[in-house]
Amino acid sequence: MKAVKKKGAIVADDDLAVYCPDLAEWARTWCYEDRDEPPGQQIVECFKPFLRHLNNSGLTRKTRHKHRDNLWRLGGELIRKLWETPSLRKRPIADWVASTIDDCGGPLLSHYPSEEEQRSFDSTCRKFHSFLKTRQPPPR
């Protein structure tokens, strides 16, 4: 069993598998065609530290699952954006993922969500953005 040390606690990959049993399939669910899977896998790798953080955060199960599901939606929106703007495929995925979210939230969901769904999604994107800011070294 592979484990990650996190602030004095050990969060095992098995714990992530329980929290996100279908995580290995996320990239495939976002694909329009086979060439979408590699960037999708890279997006999943960008999400994993945040998912581990959420799972170890003390949030209620319902709240953790809401954030997990919204993160899955973010991945789908990112792959859709690759289709709309093919030049994005040339950018480093981690940088591009970070640039799509900010203190206000994330991209507008494309499947006509309710205002409540968009607010929930933006809440997750803000939380993810805050998490990324604390992990990245400050710009020079």
Please provide a written account of the structure:
This protein has 140 residues and is mostly helical. It has one domain. 59% of the residues lie in helices and 6% in strands. It is built from 6 helices and 2 strands; from the N terminus they run ββαααααα. Strands 1-2 form a two-stranded antiparallel ribbon. It is globular and about 40 Å long.
List keywords for this structure.
6% strand, mainly alpha, two-stranded antiparallel ribbon, 140 residues
Query: What structural class do the secondary elements suggest?
Result: mainly alpha
Number of domains: 1
Secondary-structure element series: EEHHHHHH
Rg result:
15 Å
Described by strand count, sense and barrel closure, the largest sheet is: 2 strands, antiparallel
Ranges where pLDDT stays below 50 over 5 or more residues in a row are 1-11
- What is the terminal separation in angstroms? 38 Å
Percentage of residues in helical conformation: 55-70%
Strand share of the residues?
5-15%
**Topology, number of strands:** 2
Shape: globular
Q: If helices are DSSP runs of H or I spanning 4 or more residues, what is the number of helices?
A: 6
Task: Describe, in short, the structure shown.
With 140 residues, the chain is mostly helical. It has one domain (24-135). It has 6 helices and 2 strands.
